[in-house]
Amino acid sequence: xxxxxxxxxxxxxxxxxxxxxxxxxxxxxxxxxxxxxxxxxxxxxxxxxxxxxxxxxxxxxxxxxxxxxxxxxxxxxxxxxxxxxxxxxxxxxxxxxxxxxxxxxxxxxxxxxxxxxxxxxxxxxxxxxxxxxxxxxxxxxxxxxxxxxxxxxxxxxxxxxxxxxxxxxxxxxxxxxxxxxxxxxxxxxxxxxxxxxxxxxxxxxxxxxxxxxxxxxxxxxxxxxxxxxxxxxxxxxxxxxxxxxxxxxxxxxxxxxxxxxxxxxxxxxxxxxxxxxxxxxxxxxxxxxxxxxxxxxxxxxxxxxxxxxxxxxxxxxxxxxxxxxxx
Amino acid sequence: xxxxxxxxxxxxxxxxxxxxxxxxxxxxxxxxxxxxxxxxxxxxxxxxxxxxxxxxxxxxxxxxxxxxxxxxxxxxxxxxxxxxxxxxxxxxxxxxxxxxxxxxxxxxxxxxxxxxxxxxxxxxxxxxxxxxxxxxxxxxxxxxxxxxxxxxxxxxxxxxxxxxxxxxxxxxxxxxxxxxxxxxxxxxxxxxxxxxxxxxxxxxxxxxxxxxxxxxxxxxxxxxxxxxxxxxxxxxxxxxxxxxxxxxxxxxxxxxxxxxxxxxxxxxxxxxxxxxxxxxxxxxxxxxxxxxxxxxxxxxxxxxxxxxxxxxxxxxxxxxxxxxxxx
Lengths: 327, 327
Hints:
The structure is a homodimer. By secondary structure, chain A is an alpha/beta fold. The first copy, chain A, has a domain of 191 residues: CofD-like domains (Rossmann fold), CATH 3.40.50. Chain A is 37% helix and 19% strand. In chain A, the strands form four sheets. A seven-stranded parallel beta sheet of chain A has the order 5-2-1-9-10-13-14, with helices on both faces. In chain A, strand 1, helix 1 and strand 2 form a beta-alpha-beta unit. In chain A, helix 1 runs parallel beside helix 2. The first copy, chain A, is globular. Chains A and B meet through helix 3 and helix 4 of A and helix 3 and helix 4 of B. Chains A, B: InterPro entries: CofD, CofD-like_dom_sf, FbiA/CofD. Chains A, B: Keywords: Magnesium, Transferase. Chains A, B: Its EC number is 2.7.8.28. Chains A, B: GO terms for molecular function: LPPG:FO 2-phospho-L-lactate transferase activity.
């Protein structure tokens, strides 16, 4: 199949690599990237949308190529100053160039612009591809908090922002619960709904099923659109050989009762032929061949291919394979 | 005389050099520096107090020693980014380190802190001298706007923020009027009133009489306190040989009907023995000896000494001379 219009569900670092692969696979298609905004955070008065920023920087060749997030040629004067002012938090590394993005966003928020409008304004700098659109999943405000075991707390547990759990505590504390504050009021934007309705192909990227893809699916309107579309909906596993290539999904999946395997995540998304399921096909890595039986028994056709995103071309290859498999 | 407690009225760059001289002259005195806040400005959502910041950076050895304002070892990543985002204004140079100060201030403003409280919080980093206090003249909000000749405007005139006039237009347009928005509601803080009341010596620094010292004097409570204090009030000319050493007073004095001479500025401040006057003595530079007759004829004793602030010691010398002269 040669898709004309593709909708992609994605988080940040892995999501942006995946999107580069989608573009490499289908150079002429329109691509609407529906990006998670549930790990947004306000620090030092600055509104920060980590996944949106990573997506823009990565697609605009402004990303730090070694870290995979943050800006290339970054300077760190402001963090040093905040430390000298003894202003907390200091655990969230904000580079000076990155802060410029947050300053622009924060001003636009204050001026009443929506997240969609702000992302479009920032994208005029980063996205030169006229057929590539970066869309926040919602204009509502969602913040993910994680409840962890804390032996020092009187209750034995403590809630913190997801970014604090991930960046400050390196996802080490045991997770008891994940709370997405605001998700019940979050509605897909008109742009997202239109992207899902008009797409002739929908790809669910290998991003974190709990804190990236999960919130997108929980945004009002997304799951019904995925279940109703005549397009094929194909999911790609971010769990390879029993652990995530990037991030901390292995620390979060158990808290929502999902095993850390490519098979369990596929069954978690589910086939469109079952209630609530969203996928027509599931793609797992070569190392996870043993998982196929379980997923297919649950009614979800599953393809096994090498899933490492070592280059846009390598990513394009497995994306095309998945699409052909599902057609 | 050996003062125990000194109140200084001051602006930014020249004011901070003057204060270093005051400390060098009187190592054991308590010094309360009452700083102009009428050229404060909000840019990129950041609350900026140029005179306060210059004072803190200068007294804390954090200032760019060449420019006399801004931070030492400054980086400029954010300005470069804002330019790439095509976000205006770009004429006000904001270094990354400097922006950290504005971020901290902006957050404290949002949290409801007063300008006095914020300055004290920032000063904990910069001012190690326990007997030196930096006080904004008011917790009210004052912004200076300048009305200039603009042949391209339909009315032939245009109003702009003082910082735009000074930094962007280098004080070149002809000034028709100066409007201090908010000055009628600006009241001296309790700390300023107490500093003026408790001082046994008051020094009016050689800062701009129109946009630095002028707004301090126009702040409700300041002029009556200066007229009522039993302490000597001594003024120092910033006009040397017919022009300011720093800044753009020569572009502004004509707009308030004051000649650009050390004598005219002295008469503008006036002797405390005349209605509204604030000074017991006026100190002018050696080059301005011819001005003395006119000022003394107006009832204000005037001393002639070299006024160049080439070092804290040189500044201390003319300050001590002025104080002895007035005693």
